[in-house]
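Why show two proteins at once? Because comparison is the fastest way to build intuition. When a single record is shown, students tend to memorize it. When two are placed side by side, the eye starts asking what differs. So, the first record is below.
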Amino acid sequence: MGGLSNQIMIGTRGSALALVQAEEARAALLRLDPDLSVELEIIKTRGDKIQSVPLAQVGGKGLFVREIEEALLDGRVDLAVHSMKDLPAEQPEGLVIAAVPERLDARDVLISRDFQSVETLPQGARVGTSSLRRGAQLLSLRPDLAVTPLRGNVDTRLKKLAAGDVEAVVLAAAGLIRLGRLDDSAVPFDRREMLPAIGQGALAFETRADDAALIERLARLHHQPTADAVRAERAFLRRLAGDCHAPVAAHGVIEKDALRLEGLVSDIEGRRVFRDFVSGPRASAEALGQALAETLLAAGADEVLAALKEPA
């Protein structure tokens, strides 16, 4: 596998979205070299096996990638295709993100059968999401809403909406785009209302650090502006030691050689929200992410994060 430059095994989760993303990578590699042999290996992760419990209660980030990274390290697969937002801030030794393709729409969207915005939802409306980040920002906008835990794939969540289990759901625009499911029923949140997850809308092509041939191939699929924005977001997350255990969000925007990074830390109820932004040269992406995290920590976000780490 890894030693044969014309054969590549891609490790992926088995969800519809994960398979679409892996097929995107496969097609991109074959466009570069039609003589390649590129196959998919479906790997079930702990996050796929545990569907009835919110992610924050069973380990948070890493639940959807650990088994795939183990397969990379032991040579069963050569390339992993991840949703960037699923990756922990720190990578295992021996692995690298070799390429970051161009990002899709990073926004979240609200989908409802009867209502067109958060403002028009009725008092006490049930909004389905298991994301602490989304829940906190929803409650900051509308403290009366009933944030209802909702896991599963896109189809599962939309079926629960159709069945009347909730009045609305919040999903990532990028996932709906990749699945061909984005339509007029999905109303995008303005980023002032709902700041995205770190890395949302972007993919990470991960491989072994010593697989020079594959790293060289993947470099041709790399989109540097996306990579710089995501690097700032992940530096922000890393400095906060953030995880799915805390409502943390960040989004970077590149304009020519400049980077604007906005970040947020909140308590789960959306009552204490710390939010700010930094701007600077994109070459300093990591330093900008760290600086923004320091600003929010100094403003009081450290107290919120410490409280969330305390045992219940």
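Second record. Ask yourself what differs from the first in the token line.
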Amino acid sequence: MQVLIIGGTGLISRGIVKHLRARGAEVTVFNRAQREDTLPPDVKRIRGDRNQFNEFERTMLAARFDVVIDMVCFNSEQAAAVVGAFSGRCQQFIFCSTVCTYGVKAPPGVLIDESFPQEPISEYGRNKVACERIFREMHKLGRFNVTIMRPSHTYGPGAPLIDNLEADAVAWDRIDRGRPVLCAGDGLGLWQSTHRDDVGKLFAYAALNPKTYGQEYNATRDEVVTWRDYYRHVADALGKPAQLAFMPAAWIVRHDPKRFGLLHEITQFHGAYNSSKARRDVPEFKCEVDLTRGAGETFTDMRRRNAWRDSTTDALYQSMMDEAIATGGEPVPA
């Protein structure tokens, strides 16, 4: 099986490569070679910029793949270039979309499945919906078989670990130093976190699986936790207890809307999804990495890359904590 990954060195891509190689696939990655490349030497590399659309299409027309997995398609222009490059030239196209396409509403049963209406509130989510529509149309026209994946929060070595407030969280250093951290609301919002290797397994075993053709899948583990649970499990990886001070999301965002954009657009809302359809059609998709173990792996990698954030220099966070405590937000165990 000849597989091309557009991207290939990002977080989920590394999990995909791991499981494709376990299947015996020959893997090629296409990217700008601007990120740390820890892929095995037998993975083929093609260097290029997908946003140079004419050159991208010419490069792709010089090769042929059974499966193309696009991890870095973020707008309709990039999607159109994919159509030009691969229409009629691959058996299956797997698109990495996002659960952000659903928006922030929750169904009566809380868990969102693939039939839930797509009403994104972010530009990122709206652009992914536009890409999905283009690829679904190509599937209907028989240009290639399309499979759409919608991961939620995916984590692991190669990226920082989010907290409830921000993508590159200073909270983990605070917990490691025995300091309290902030959490929005009452900490009972629902959340799902899936390790990159487990998400990668779904992509890898969906490849050339006819059951996945023309289908859309949530790509999350079964376990749903509250934010209190999340902090507690992650703190266990540090061997320290987490102390949480609860404050309204709007209060936190108001202090720095750009820094706390993750909270504003995503994490103040429930993020709980049903992936039973994926497990039905891809039985190999079994999530095996628990949050404490995965957080430990992530922290080790962050320290290796000198990407660990030092909380002692974060005056804004400390001033927010002082204000929260002064107004009655006394920290409590997670």
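One difference worth noting in the second protein: The CA atoms of residues 315 and 321 lie 10 Å apart.
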